[in-house]
Amino acid sequence: MQTYLPPNRQLSRTIMALPGKEEWDPSISDSWLASQMHMAGCFVARHKANGDVETTAINELLFHDTIQLGDEVKCYAEIVSIYRTSFTVHVEAWVRREPLSEDIKMADGIFTFIAKINNFIQ
Description:
Strand order of the largest sheet: 1-3-4-5-2
Number of helices: 1
Distance between the termini: 40 Å
CATH architecture: Roll
Structural class: alpha+beta
CATH class: Alpha Beta
Number of strands: 5
Helix content: 10-25%
CATH superfamily: Hotdog Thioesterase
CATH topology: Thiol Ester Dehydrase, Chain A
Number of domains: 1
Shape: elongated
Largest sheet: 5 strands, antiparallel
């Protein structure tokens, strides 16, 4: 497991990895983490668009390690490019796992969103 310095991006979402359907397995599914990252990217894009956005693509999604039950998951997001009505957002997922006191990078991805209505202001 590799430890990195936390990113210089906007903290968009913090959530505790709690048991659900995965009660038989101490790890959390990659689809759960992808969903959390998607919501974090959507939050940043909606803020920039001043309204609703729609996901047009998940361009890249890399998982570096597995989330465990009880991990504190933090998603950091940053808009990396803006076009006329679309946004490309880089999202990183980090965890703080007890008894460790350092943040560990778990995944990162590139998401593309488009503004739903003509309320986009650059």
